[in-house]
């Protein structure tokens, strides 16, 4: 049983690459800006008007790997969500189906928010889900609570740090 985490501003260390606005800042979003328009060679997401979308590539656009694919390539998730509890084992298929459908819905709406992978067997133990963004991490946890009850903990990480969230129902 882990204690709830609270942010302690006194211990907050400014980061050289962060925008210190009190907002979460993702170092992967602050790398060199893509030319506009650009298309990601890995997932075909397109960048224009300052954001990544699933719009069709524009002819003559540059090639620029999107921040989500950079994270997948580097093996560096922005968030992790651990699923646990006896309910998970008893309803493994329903839980994992909701994870998949909700993850797909979030990906369609927010191209940089993706489920990278899942590990562990829900029928016999915990499952670890890894995400390219913290909103997807939090969103799946919320969807699980909404559908099945249980409790989620998703302490907001410091800028540039990973979100370590959990959902549990017994
Ligand atoms: Zn991509």
3D architecture notes:
By secondary structure, the chain is of the alpha+beta class. It has two domains: 33 residues, no CATH class; 95 residues, Alpha-Beta Plaits. Helices cover 27% and strands 21% of the residues. It has four helices and nine strands; from the N terminus they run E-E-E-E-H-E-H-H-E-E-H-E-E. The protein has a five-stranded mixed sheet. It has a four-stranded mixed sheet with strand order 3-2-1-4, with no helix packed on it. A hairpin with a 6-residue loop joins strand 1 and strand 2. The site of zinc ion has 8 residues, from helix 1.
Percent helix, as a range, is 25-40%
Which fold name corresponds to the CATH topology of the largest domain? Alpha-Beta Plaits
What number of structural domains do the residues give? Answer: 2
* Count of DSSP H/I helices: 4
pLDDT averaged over residues: 87
Q: Indicate the overall shape.
A: elongated
Just name the CATH architecture of the largest domain.
2-Layer Sandwich
| Percent of residues in beta strands | 15-25%
- Secondary structure: number of strands: 9
Order of helices and strands: EEEEHEHHEEHEE
Report the structural category: alpha+beta
Strand order of the largest sheet: 6-7-5-9-8
Bound molecules: zinc ion
What is the end-to-end distance?
12 Å
How large, in whole angstroms, is the Cα Rg? Answer: 17 Å
CATH class of the largest domain: Alpha Beta
User: For the report, how would you describe the main beta sheet?
Assistant: 5 strands, mixed
Task: Give the uncertain stretches in residue-range form.
Answer: 1-23
